[in-house]
Design a protein that fits this description.
The chain is 43% helix and 12% strand. By secondary structure, the protein is an alpha/beta fold. Helix 8 runs antiparallel to helix 9 and helix 9 runs parallel beside helix 14.
Amino acid sequence: MILCFIPPAAARNHVPSRALQALVAVAITLAGIALSVEAAFARPFVDAAGRTVEVPERARRILAAGPPASVLLYTLAPETMIGWVRAPSPDEAAFLTPETRDLPAYGRLTGKGNTANVEAVLTLKPDLIIDVGSTAPTYVSLADRVQAQTGIPYILLDGAIDLTSETYAKLGELIGVPERAGDLATHAEAMIAEVKGRIDSIPADRRPRVYYARGPRGLETGVSGSINTEILDRAGARNVAEGGGAAGLTTISPEQVLARDPDAIVTLDPAFHRAISTDPLWSTLRAVRAGRVYQTPRLPFGWFDSPPGINRLIGLRWLAARLYPDLFPEPMEGITRDFYRRFYHVDLDAAQLDTLLKDAGAARP
């Protein structure tokens, strides 16, 4: 509400006309300034779910609702982060900027195992909440509910890897860093296009059948069509875990793994990677016998998944080179250094490169 003082009639009779005009002019000017200031702090923004949200003109304190949003925000504007969904481990922190390593952990608002609550969000006093991933009705409902409870604008961005460029552009416009967003969007698009351009000519029936093994036993996987396994398809692989109407992650039986007998296996788990060649369940598979079991690098964020965010860009390039070494002969060291400098704001030394890449080849039978 804007209040301005207009003298009562009796008082106006004793005020010279010029003074009264000046007083009215000042009141009008102040009212205009107040309206301008008010408008500057709120503007409509249409998010990836089609929701129109009133957002700050410049959000300086941003809360990421889940891990993919944390990664996106870290790559684009780490200075706006008010914390992490999960505190980085010492190994992960070594690959992050010093300014962000010790930010507080507040839990997650969205996704599997959400642990944050409205009170925790209010305590952190964010200007804006962002979530990156699915824009399905479940996530729209959550965003609307949290926004209504806290009064804090909450936006949804699409986490599909093919929309990375668009997502960067939207967030860059929203938080006032369009140039930085444009640079990252350009490089992300180029990485995706490079892989696509080299594998497009390979017929579907000549593409390797790949199993994505999660967990210490390798029996959790991502079904085809889910965000967790997007880069299998983009890297020129066929996911042996067909969706069948399911979505996301699922658990399968040892018999199902044996029946599908993949050409290659990708895993996140170091212990599983070390043990697979001697495990009776796995050792008979053609992927294990051929030495085509690949452990994805995982610092500071997993290259394949965990989370399914911007971090998958470098994983896409790495996986394509594992599946098609003749098409991607360039050493990963230089590609990794450039990605970490550009997206993660860190210059890797030789020891860090070795830590990332030493186990990222195949497990030998």
